[in-house]
Amino acid sequence: MHKWKKFSVTMSAIAAFTAMSFNISGTSFSATTDYKFDFGGGGVQSGYIGTSASTAYSKSLGYGFNTPANMKNVTASGTGAASDAVQFLTYGTKSTNTFNVDLSNGLYEVKVTLGNTSRASVAAEGVFQIINMTGNNAVDKFQIPITDGQLNLLITEGKAGTAFTLSALEIKKLSDNPATNRTIYIGGDSTVCNYYPLDTSVQAGWGQMLPKYVSTDHFQIRNMASGGQIARGFRDDGQFEAIMKYLKPGDYFIIQLGINDTNAKNNTTEAQFKEIMRDMVVKAKATGATVVLSTPQGRATDFNVSNVHTAVGRWYRASTMALAKEENVQLLDLNVLSSTYFTSIGPDATLALYMSGDTLHPNRAGATQLARIVYESLKLPIGSPTPTNTSTKAPTNTPLLTKAPSNTPTSTAKTLVEDINGDRVVNMADVIMLARNFNAQVTDSTRSCDLNSDGVINMSDVIKVALKFNTSM
């Protein structure tokens, strides 16, 4: 190629990249795939897009509230982006009072920071995404597929009568493919659910601690359990609906209920409990996912005179076991498995795994042990090392893998580093990948765009692609 022609192609590629990338002057954006929003009427944290309650969605802006009249600026007790927030005055999973963000279709990770609130849930695309985040400035994240070009999110119940607030939102694109990663969905009650802060809470549910054993590189875990839940409530009040929206072949759905169903105030007979559970099992099986019925663990004090822990008569266990057999789904008899473990460590050590003065709810160490038992029973194909620094560790004979085996031979063929997408030609597709990640922090998923390995995706990387433009292998 003549020098002048190559120069022309180079400049054309740079011009095309520039046209895609730089209409982001603060009020609108198009090419980037990562966004950070700081909500409220106060100052704006560096690197975030300031968004007040009065910011109305428009196509030219690309984000904003659908009904600003139903939003309110409020203060919050955190720092930086968490020092103020917006409050959703109307709410509900089907509410149109949403914060909307235009996004290209694909799979996204959404990180949510609440403002000051007692207990609130996150809904998006018409269903729950996170259940019952508790405490001021609670933080959590979830994966969500976008297939209609827009994220529609709001903060909702939660606990009735409290403020549902949002301080910050971070959105990161994971893939152009909107299909969710393999997922373990969990249904349950207060012995299973998440407590906040997730990494330091004294009380915990075993669903919260399961990521210590299951590699989130291969499974995402969506814990939809909530305190006080019964089978009817889980099925009818939105949690099961949220799971069914995304449940697919290759996923797991583990459901453990029964503790609260046995309470007379909830008016659920054992026969009713079994049929409600059956309804969910049948519908979940029809998606091709693996359904697992789990029996709840007993109380810390369920030791007999021989110091054997046994709770086989509790929590409608017999009906759960019968249902698993009738519907031919996997049974996880956590009731008996945990009792075996509790017997091995004795009454005092067992009591130390529960909340002080509470023989029903596990503390963080107890939930970790229950999560270990769940993991070993499931025999998932991929795991991570058994966590250290737990107050009571049990031996395990189950090998926990840290890396998936690969059947793909390592290629020794010559490659072009500028061929970012690996199609053996440097073309506009590679320029587009750079545009999408321009100025983004380099991660494992975007490292191929950092051509000169300086830790940032910038114009020097664009120039390297431009100089090899239309080169093929």
UniProtKB/TrEMBL annotation:
Keyword flag Ligase: no
Extent of Polar residues compositional bias: 385-411
GO molecular function: hydrolase activity, hydrolyzing O-glycosyl compounds
Signal peptide annotation: 1-30
Key words, A-Z: Hydrolase, Signal
Superkingdom of origin organism: Bacteria
CDD domains for the chain: Dockerin_II, Rhamnogalacturan_acetylesterase_like
GO biological process, one term: polysaccharide catabolic process
Domain Dockerin: 413-473
InterPro entries: AGA-YXIM_GBD, Dockerin_1_rpt, Dockerin_dom, Dockerin_dom_sf, EF_Hand_1_Ca_BS, Galactose-bd-like_sf, RhgT-like, SGNH_hydro
Residues covered by region (Disordered): 384-411
One protein family per Pfam: Lipase_GDSL_2
Family from the record: Belongs to the 'GDSL' lipolytic enzyme family.
PANTHER family per UniProt: PUTATIVE (AFU_ORTHOLOGUE AFUA_2G17250)-RELATED, RHAMNOGALACTURONAN ACETYLESTERASE
Record's protein name: Dockerin domain-containing protein
